[in-house]
């Protein structure tokens, strides 16, 4: 198999693009897809400062590296959740990566915030992943605003986005469907949230990470009940194998035509937000935001 661009021996074949690439041309292809994703959805510009949430996985590391190669002003953010057998290893990967590529890195630990995840798991009888996700989003947002960043970027890829869209569509969940896309937020109290890898699949990002020699974190979180949206991703994978390119069409069609249909909002999504008494974050919970309530519950004997 030959590279579509330079006719050298190909190392990656992409059925969805009906193309094969050598290593050099594949990196250029990946860069073009990231740039198209940023420009077409007005995610951010070269004059803006971008905070990139790093998990230690290949998606977020590939993202921050590619953005820095393209000359964007990026800073990494790692939230150390203190989860035994997982967080310390991921943190090590992120620290080594940022040192090797001379990237700025901010590290926050949930324990310092009074939100130690193992303690929450032990004390509060709530689904840990939903609480943990909420805490991460809260800290990402707070750090982005506190550091004066213009956007907060995450490594969500096309598989994550289409699985979420599929799930929201199966439930016809109007409020989620109106609030999905590669660029969200930027209301008072909320940073702009962007997903520059939205045009690229897990497979495509994994190839980039491999070709760039990115060391990433493998050990799954011991609290994980399995990857999110596993079943839906499997269905979409089969669809893509039978009809290459359909995943990107599904998502792009939603952005161009579907999303506007839900943008008017749906019943129940016009909640009033007010600042939390404790931390000032916007909340619809009344007095205290969800995170400050968790903190309070942890401190209650
Ligand atoms: S699997 Fe759940 S508990 Fe573990 S890091 Fe992810 S969201 Fe948090
Ligand atoms: Zn080539
Ligand atoms: Zn609060």
What does this structure look like?
This protein is α/β, with parallel strands linked by helices. It has two domains: 43-217 and 242-263, HUPs (Rossmann fold), CATH 3.40.50.620; 273-301, no CATH class. The chain contains eleven helices and ten strands. The chain has helices at 23-40, 58-69, 87-100, 117-123, 128-146, 158-170, 174-177, 202-211, 230-242, 246-262, 290-299, and strands at 12-14, 19-21, 49-54, 73-80, 104-109, 151-153, 183-185, 192-194, 274-275, 282-283. The protein has a six-stranded mixed sheet with strand order 5-4-3-6-8-7, sandwiched between helices. The chain has a two-stranded antiparallel ribbon with strand order 1-2. A two-stranded antiparallel ribbon has the order 9-10. A hairpin with a 6-residue loop joins strand 9 and strand 10. Helix 2 (58-69) packs across helix 8 (202-211) and helix 6 packs across helix 10. The chain is globular and about 65 Å long. The mean pLDDT is 93. It binds iron/sulfur cluster and zinc ion (2 copies). Residues 81, 83, 128-129, 132-133, 221, 223-224 line the site of iron/sulfur cluster.
């Amino acid at each position: 198999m030959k590279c579509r661009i330079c006719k050298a021996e190909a190392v990656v074949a992409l059925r969805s693009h009906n193309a094969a690439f050598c290593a050099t041309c594949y990196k250029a292809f990946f860069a073009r897809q990231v740039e198209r994703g940023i420009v077409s959805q007005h995610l951010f510009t070269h004059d803006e400062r971008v905070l990139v949430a790093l998990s230690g996985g290949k998606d977020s590391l590939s993202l921050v590296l590619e953005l820095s190669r393209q000359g964007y002003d990026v800073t990494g953010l790692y939230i150390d959740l203190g989860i035994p057998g997982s967080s310390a290893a991921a943190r090590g990967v992120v620290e080594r990566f940022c040192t090797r590529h001379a990237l700025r890195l901010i590290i926050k630990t949930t324990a310092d915030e009074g939100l130690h995840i193992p303690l929450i798991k032990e004390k509060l009888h709530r689904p840990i992943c939903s609480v943990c996700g909420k805490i991460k989003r809260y800290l990402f947002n707070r750090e982005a605003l506190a550091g004066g960043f213009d956007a907060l970027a995450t490594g969500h890829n096309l598989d994550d986005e289409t699985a979420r869209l599929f799930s929201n569509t199966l439930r016809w969940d109007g409020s989620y469907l109106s609030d999905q896309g590669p660029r969200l937020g930027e209301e008072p109290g909320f940073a702009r949230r962007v997903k520059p890898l939205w045009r690229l699949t897990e497979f495509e990002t994994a190839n980039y990470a491999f070709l760039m020699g990115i060391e990433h974190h493998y050990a799954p979180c011991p609290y994980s009940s399995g990857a999110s949206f596993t079943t839906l991703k499997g269905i979409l994978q089969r669809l893509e194998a039978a009809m290459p390119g359909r995943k990107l069409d599904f998502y792009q069609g939603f952005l161009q035509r579907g999303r506007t249909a839900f943008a008017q909002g749906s019943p129940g999504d016009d909640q009033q937000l007010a600042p939390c008494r404790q931390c000032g974050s916007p909340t619809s919970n009344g007095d205290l935001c969800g995170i400050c309530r968790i903190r309070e519950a942890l401190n209650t004997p």
